[in-house]
Amino acid sequence: MTKLIEMAKNATAVKAQLAQLSEKQKNGALAAIAKALRENTAQILAANDQDIAAAQAAGMKESMQDRLKLDTVRIEGIAAAVEQLIELPDPVGKILSGETMKDGMRLINIRVPLGVVGIIYESRPNVTVDAATLCLKSGNVCILKGGKEAIYSNTALMKIMRETLEECGLPADFMQLIEDTSRAAAQELMGLAGYLDVLIPRGGAGLIQSVVENAKVPVIETGTGNNHIYVDADADQAMALTILDNAKTQRPSVCNAVETLLVHQDIAEEFLPKAKALLDAHSVEWRGDEITRQILGAQVLPVTNEDYQTEFIDYIMACKVVSDLEEAIAHIAEYGTGHSEAIVTKDYDRANRFTNAVDAAAVYVNCSTRFTDGGEFGLGAEIGISTQKLHVRGPMGLEALTSNKYMVLGSGQIRG
Amino acid sequence: MTKLIEMAKNATAVKAQLAQLSEKQKNGALAAIAKALRENTAQILAANDQDIAAAQAAGMKESMQDRLKLDTVRIEGIAAAVEQLIELPDPVGKILSGETMKDGMRLINIRVPLGVVGIIYESRPNVTVDAATLCLKSGNVCILKGGKEAIYSNTALMKIMRETLEECGLPADFMQLIEDTSRAAAQELMGLAGYLDVLIPRGGAGLIQSVVENAKVPVIETGTGNNHIYVDADADQAMALTILDNAKTQRPSVCNAVETLLVHQDIAEEFLPKAKALLDAHSVEWRGDEITRQILGAQVLPVTNEDYQTEFIDYIMACKVVSDLEEAIAHIAEYGTGHSEAIVTKDYDRANRFTNAVDAAAVYVNCSTRFTDGGEFGLGAEIGISTQKLHVRGPMGLEALTSNKYMVLGSGQIRG
C-alpha cells in the first residue's frame, strides 16, 4: 500500500464522522484553528523562511517569491479568513426539495457533503489553510497537494491545523497534506478513483490542463480567463474607457481581467486612440490587427492567433476591430475560455443578443469583468471559479462543495 | 480531420442556435418526430430485422435479442415517450437566483443548456430516440454512439429524426449518430475535450468503468446498483418480507433491484427461513455467510467476497447475518455502489442513523429500493441515474442536462 493509498483510506475512514458534525462543532474547530495560526506565527514564519531561502537559492523571480512569502500581516489575513467562514451558513443539511410520493412516502432531497475532496495547487501557502477550512465548513475531508516551493510552509500550516483538530477531540485526518511534491505523487492523486469524490486544481493553465487530461476522478475545471470586452458602435465611449481601464489594469494578474479588446469598426478611429492613451499610463503593450495598427501606428505589434488564445495575465492588450456584433460573438466563441465576457453598448437588442449568445460563466453589460468573484457575487468565500458546465459554473462557494441525497421514508410501500 | 472531429465541429456550429430555441419550437419538433416515427414504422422494422438477423447469425442470447427487438407496440411506445416530453416544462431560461449587487448591478443566475452532450450506450435502440429527444427538449446538441448490435435500427431512427428536424426548418446536426461502432471510435469520443460539455455512459458496469477511466471530458457516472436491504432486529418482519420480495424479484435486471440481504442476528433464525421460502417461488439462488448456511442449510452456496461486490441483476441473493446496525452500515460502505440502500425497522433512532450514515443517492426506510427512478421521483423523464456526487445525484431528468450562466447588467460600474 502506497503512502497515498494509506492517506486515502484514512480519509475514507473519517468522512462519515465529518459529514455528520454539527455546525457548532465545525465552527468551534474553525475558531480554534484561527487562534492556533495566530499563536504559532513564529513557527510558520520560520518554516516559510526555509521556503524563501530555497527559492532564492534556486533563483526564483521576485514576483514569484512574493507569492510565496508570508509575514505577520499575511498570517493575520489567513486567520481572519478562517474566522469569516464561521459567519457563513452551513450548507449541509438543507432540504433542497421534497414531496409526498403517490404511495404516501416522503421523498426528501437533502444537501450532503461531497465526501473526500482533493485539491492540487501551486505556490501560495495561504491556499493550504483556505482550502482545508472551506472543506471543513462544508463537511468534506480533504487531501491537499501544494507546490514543492511551499512545502515547508504548507507542512507547518497543516501540522498546526491537525494538532488543533485533535485538541478539539476530532480526527486529525479530516485534513491531510501530501508531503511528496513529485510529479508521480500528483499522477497518483489524479488516479485515486473510488476514494476521491472530486479533484479541484487551483493554479495556472498548465496545471489545470494536466489534471483535466489525466484525472480518473471527477474534476472541477477552474480558472483560466481569456476574457474580452466588446465596445459596440453605440457604446458610451467614456464608460467603455473606464470599464476597459478597470478590467485591464486594476489587477492584470487575475483570471477576471480582460485580455482582448474588440471594437466596432464604426467607432474604432475615434475610440482606439483614447483607449491607447489611457492604458499608456500603465505602460500596457498593445498587439493589434491590421486596422488597429493603421489607426494606432506601427508601434503596436501585429497580433497573432496565439495572442488571441493567450491569457496574458499581464500588461498586454490584444485588440481587433470587428465589423459588427456577430463578428465579436464569433471571435469570443472561438477564443474565449468561458469565464467573463463584456459588452459596452447603449443598444437594448444588442445587449440581449450578447448575453444570450455568449457562452461563458459570466456575461456583462456595461460593467467590468473584474466582478466575477465569490465575494462580489455574495458567496462569502471562494474555492475557485469554475469554467466548466458540469456541477457548478462561475464562482464556487461552500455550496459547490456539496452534493445531494434522497431520503425516502415509507411504511411498507413496494413498487407495483 | 477525422469524421468524428467533423461531427463535433458540426455540433459546435449549431449549439448556440439550439440553446436559444423557444419552448414552442422545441415542442413542435418533438411532435413532428413522434409523428414521423409512427409513419415510418415499416422502415424502422425493416432495419431492425437486419439487426436481429445479424444477432441470430452471431448466436446472441434470446434475452439479449429481446432487448434489441422492435415491433409496432414498442415503436408506438417510443413515439409516445417523445410526446410525453412535450408536456414537461422547458428547464432552460429559468432564473435560478439573483440579486442587486452592492454597486447596483443586477446579478441574474439563469439556467442554460450544457451545450454538446455525448451519450454512449449499448444494445437497446429506443435509447437513440430517448436520448436525442431529451437533449432536444433541454436545448442540447447531441452526439450519440450506440452498440454495434443495433446499428441498422439506430441509423434508421436517426435518419428519420434528422430529416424531421430539417422539415421543421431546423439543422439536422442538432442530433448526430456515430455510425462507426468500433472501439477506436468510442475512444475518440471519450477524448473530445473542447467539444463535449459532458459524456454520459448508459449501460453495463464494463462500459461505465471504461468511460470513467478513459474520458478526458466531464462524465456523469450512471447506473451500477449493488444495493442492500438491512432487516433490523426491530423490523416488522411481514413488511420486510414484502419489501425484500419486491426489491429482489419484481424486476431483478434493473439497477434499483436489491442484491444483498443483511439480517440482524437476533431475528435471523426466524426471518431467514421465511425469506427463503418466499424467494423460492421465483427460484432465487442464495449465497450466504456461515450463519446463514447454518440456518438455511447447505444448499445455500457459501458467499464470496466477489459476490458481495457483484451487481447480479439476476435471481441471485447474497445474504449476511450482522451483529448490529453498525456492521450493516460498514458492510454497505465497503460494498455498496452508492445507488439505493434500505433499512426495515420500527426503531426511530436506528432509522435516522441509517439514513444519515449511509452514503448513497437514495436511502430508504421501510420501503422498496425499486422506487429509485425518474418517473417515481417526479422528474417525468430520465436520462439515467447518477451514482456520482458531482453535478447531480440520483435520477437525472431534464434539469440534469443543464448548467447555469451569470448575467450581470450594469451602468458603468467598475471594481474598486
Question: If you had to describe this structure to a student in words, what would you say it looks like?
Answer:
The structure is a homodimer. With about 425 residues, chain A is an alpha/beta fold. Chain A contains 15 helices and 16 strands. Chain A has helices at about 5-20, 25-40, 40-55, 60-70, 70-85, 125-135, 150-165, 185-190, 205-215, 235-250, 265-280, 290-295, 305-310, 325-335, 350-355; strands at about 95-100, 105-115, 115-120, 140-145, 175, 200, 225-230, 260-265, 285-290, 300, 315-320, 340-345, 360-365, 385, 395, 400-415. A seven-stranded parallel sheet of chain A has the order 10-9-11-8-7-12-13, with helices on both faces. Chain A has a four-stranded parallel sheet with strand order 5-4-3-6, with helices on both faces. In chain A, helix 2 (about 25-40) crosses helix 7 (about 150-165) and helix 3 runs antiparallel to helix 7. Chain A is globular and about 70 Å long. Chains A and B meet through helix 1, strand 2, helix 10, helix 15 and strand 13 of A and helix 1, strand 2, helix 10, helix 15 and strand 13 of B. Strand 16 of chain A pairs parallel with strand 13 of chain B, so a sheet runs across the interface.
What's the SSE blueprint?
2 copies of one chain form a homodimer.
Chain A: H1 3-19, H2 23-39, H3 41-57, H4 62-68, H5 72-87, E1 95-100, E2 106-113, E3 116-121, H6 126-137, E4 141-145, H7 151-167, E5 175-177, H8 183-190, E6 198-202, H9 205-214, E7 227-231, H10 237-249, E8 258-264, H11 265-280, E9 285-288, H12 290-296, E10 301-302, H13 305-309, E11 316-322, H14 325-335, E12 340-344, H15 348-357, E13 362-367, E14 384-386, E15 394-396, E16 402-413
Parallel strand pairs in A: 3-4, 3-6, 4-5, 7-8, 7-12, 8-11, 9-10, 9-11, 12-13
Antiparallel strand pairs in A: 1-2, 2-16, 14-15
Helix pairs in contact in A: 2-5, 2-7, 3-7, 5-6, 10-11
